């Protein structure tokens, strides 16, 4: 039976990262996977995580199953982190959540709940979006529509196109939005534009589903959540998928939360029961370690301050890299790269063709996605000149 199954192609992003790992060129540059890399080119463990981990190891008395909704301290901490401590919806008890295996788990649980409520729901996704959104939502049986989002010519959000397309979204439809630091393009909505989306959701009755995987890495924890908080203030219902992978560096611990903003406290409780039953069908209980660390960090003032300081430093570094990369690229080519400085978070498209991205890979060992999406955090003082020179050469059509 199993011999019918054939080898599948490698994941496009992970496959490129693997190819970079085995590239013997000492100058190779890996800008593929969306993980934060320090100046030293490593993905660091947060100091607050290390401290929380030491305390946990000393205090832990059991490895028994987690409750189906996960750790209560974690859930409360995540609700406050995303919604803000003064959220009216939180105060009204209209918010509930369950701990999930990463932001991916939260997206999948959100999709399960949507499917239970409206099996025929169409999910509107941005063009482009993070490719993994499609299998995560589609495997539940939801169908897709696309709205225009990124304008490659202008290197920014095509908001007119987005609004025109979303005018066709109706009650019973879901609109998937990136809370901040859009993956793959780095172009985010302004607060005014979030307001327009809230107006449309109110008028047309669609349900926003906000994926916020990079809170704290764009402009800071509060500013990055301003859009999702605006929706939560204005609308009766909202689903949020949050992740601690990037902003706490807990990638491998699979730590996330599916958060439900509901019309009533009763409905918020009902949503937890729905989400738990959905989780039972897939993985039963969430993993403990990451959520126990995150819960501890979010509930301890000193650890929170320590974590926030380190996160702010990362955010400043990314924004500094954006400025340096823009000017280095402009030194080596006659193109305007100012959009890199305007965009937010880890990702930007460099605006190269797939053939140019391939030439960078084959001739210079500079690895980015074929779309020319780069992980800005993969740039550092040691590789920025090499990278900018290589991009300049490829843009001029020069051989290596
Ligand atoms: C847009 C977006 N959403 C969600 C996630 C989920 O991340 P994780 O499952 O690692 O928490 C990612 C990770 O790269 C992402 O880029």
Automatic annotation (TrEMBL):
GO CC terms in record: cytosol
Keyword terms: Aminotransferase, Pyridoxal phosphate, Transferase
Superkingdom: Bacteria
A Pfam family it matches: Aminotran_1_2
Residues annotated as domain Aminotransferase class I/classII large: 27-391
InterPro entries, per database record: Aminotransferase_I/II_large, Asp_trans, PyrdxlP-dep_Trfase, PyrdxlP-dep_Trfase_major, PyrdxlP-dep_Trfase_small
Molecular function via GO: identical protein binding; L-aspartate:2-oxoglutarate aminotransferase activity; L-tyrosine-2-oxoglutarate transaminase activity; pyridoxal phosphate binding
Cofactor: pyridoxal 5'-phosphate
Gene Ontology process terms (BP): L-phenylalanine biosynthetic process from chorismate via phenylpyruvate
Self-association state and partner proteins as the record states: Homodimer.
Family classification: Belongs to the class-I pyridoxal-phosphate-dependent aminotransferase family.
Protein name: Aspartate/tyrosine/aromatic aminotransferase
Originating species: Kineobactrum salinum
